[in-house]
Amino acid sequence: MKLVFDQLNKKVHSAIIKAPDCDLISDDFESEILTKFELQFPELDKANEEIRIDEEIVGFHNVPDGGSFIFGQKMPYIEINVPVKGCCLLFKVLSHDFYKDNKLDFCYGILSYREFRRIPIEGDDAYITSVQQKVWQLYDNISDTLGKFKPEAEALFSGFITQMRKAISDEKEKRGLQNQLTETKRSLA
Hints:
By secondary structure, this protein is α+β, with helices and mostly antiparallel strands. 52% of the residues lie in helices and 17% in strands. The chain has helices spanning 2-18, 21-24, 29-36, 88-94, 125-175, 177-188, and strands spanning 43-44, 50-57, 74-85, 104-107, 110-116. Helix 1 (2-18) packs across helix 5. It is elongated. The N and C termini lie far apart (46 Å).
């Protein structure tokens, strides 16, 4: 987990150094950094779950487990996507043990479960419900794993945010913006 925070620290520090003066003195700069680098503990946004049923041509990149299939044949699949709120990098590191199953993937802030089936899925509510329940159990397991690290990670985030605020203040002072900002506020008052 420390490697994740070291990597985030480098990115945030670089963004602070590269920020133009007008951004650096903006009242919203800190919150923009927090949002841009997702500086909060990750969690699954189950309320925004999306279920998709479609077909895909089977090839070397998407060979389904078990069953028979023919390369180049279209096979139906069900895909359940759940967005991740918070630090995606930390989420990927803490949940890495769950990706052994090639049905589960995490990309661009979306945790995705995809299951192929030889027979049509559309209209088979019992099958869709069983897959959904299996996925919910998997997501609960991931959430439980994340929960084990939450106190430690939140303490690290708290310290990290304090360091970020200091880095912003130091950069303003280094550029002479702190005095300029104070004088501007006095002249407006």
